[in-house]
User: Fold this.
Amino acid sequence: MKKAYKNAKTIAITCLQLGDSGKGKIVDLFSDWADVIVRGTGGANAGHSVYLNGKPFIFHLIPSGILHDSAGKVNIIGGGVAIDPKLLCEELDLLTEQGQPFDNLILALNAKLTLPTHVVRDRVGEGSAGLSKIGTTGRGIGPTYGDHVIRIGLTLNDLLNTDILAQKVRANVTYSARILKSYDPVAVKDVLHQEHLGRGIFWHPIRIFDVDAIVQKYLQYGTILSPMIDDADAFVQRIVGKENVLLEGAQGSLLDIDRGTYPYVTSSNCTVDGLAKGAGLHRGHVDMSLGIFKGFYMTRVGEGPFPTEFGGEISAEHCRMAREADEEDQCAYLTVNDPEEFDRGVAIRMCGQEYGATTGRARRTGRLDLPLLRYALRWGSSDVVLTKLDVLDKCETIEICTHYIYQGSAYRLGHLTINNGDPLFEAIPSAEVLQHCQPVYETFTGWQCPIRHITSFVDLPVALKKILDFLVLKTGINPRILSVGPEASETIHCS
Ligand code: IMP
Ligand code: MG
Assistant:
């Protein structure tokens, strides 16, 4: 571990973009240093690959630090996380099958409990939302957090108390059924017959949900999970400042429910503040916050404005349906230097393996957007990690968006009015503004050589360092780590 982190006892890792910036690898690097690894936000909408016996498995809920369980490290799923017990039990089964212990895993008793009602409401709602759909992962995230906020949610601890569980499930089902009555009953029934929802075991032909079936199933989950459910907040508060604590973020700052590009966001707080809170701490406990973003490009999954998208609306439309296998078959001939920007975007997606770990969806690709980065930096710190730099190794040129020109009708923003033709250097995160922002690019010459083998900053190509200097100058970032390949060894520590 480098000098810069030596004095830190609590380090938080969050993404400054829209998720999928390669947090997993950086969390892995810090897992060696950490005694305790805590996830504080999101739920099974997140996805990271964990290698067990040399084989990759996608995990959604369990922190990647679980591989260090046998070394006595404690992994925690914090109170800010939405837990779908079905998926969690499946992940635990997989660990058992692969001989990977999880003796030190703690599940926060106040974590939010995802019910079948949440998954159904998410999927049916999205299925009928037409143009206003968000493009969610279908994991029930919005309804789980939504019910928490309107005070009809459940927590993991409710799994331990049979009568309370039954009573709360009944109340939630009553509320959920009332909402679902306004949707097409065939669509509701179809969703309830999906594999994730037990192929109809929770379906009731009149009341929509079978309360007893849900309670029975959830009590079974409770039996499996009960040895792990505990007061994680108290545990973390006891050891903070004494042991090395790593806070593992999920999603990205621009997807944060309060700070992100609302309404095209997830339903938890993905910034450092939210992460600390969801882990049972507060922001003041975080000694070092590292913000991650992809080196010189970015991606977005699902709907929402994306000013720098390669190929704009054509790409957004394409990515609604495209899957990795289709592109491997049909687009293998495209290169990152194609004259058509849409084609360049596809090629970068293939190079960077930009396909959703949770949904398999093709991620929309775009140029690095400094107005959005400047905005995200307001909620983080200037200490940053740039990842996936090797993805652009073959690019002859690299465009970076320095600012936008607003091209819409006059927009009142508090005391300000944004007029057609105005330049914007920091993004205004509302979708109504972002969709009318025309990016202005500065074009750089690419380095056009492999960089994965490079281990020291001085050996990086001059062309790459020039772009980095430009970013430092234009945004005030302080690059700490550069990731030049997926392996742990393919990492450069800057200072
Ligand atoms: P939800 O979190 O499933 O409700 O989805 C809301 C929005 O956040 C959608 O646009 C998703 O694609 C996006 N989203 C949720 N989780 C992730 C993630 O881990 N990476 C990238 N995008 C995500
Ligand atoms: Mg991900």
Notes: The first strand starts at residue 10 and ends at 15.
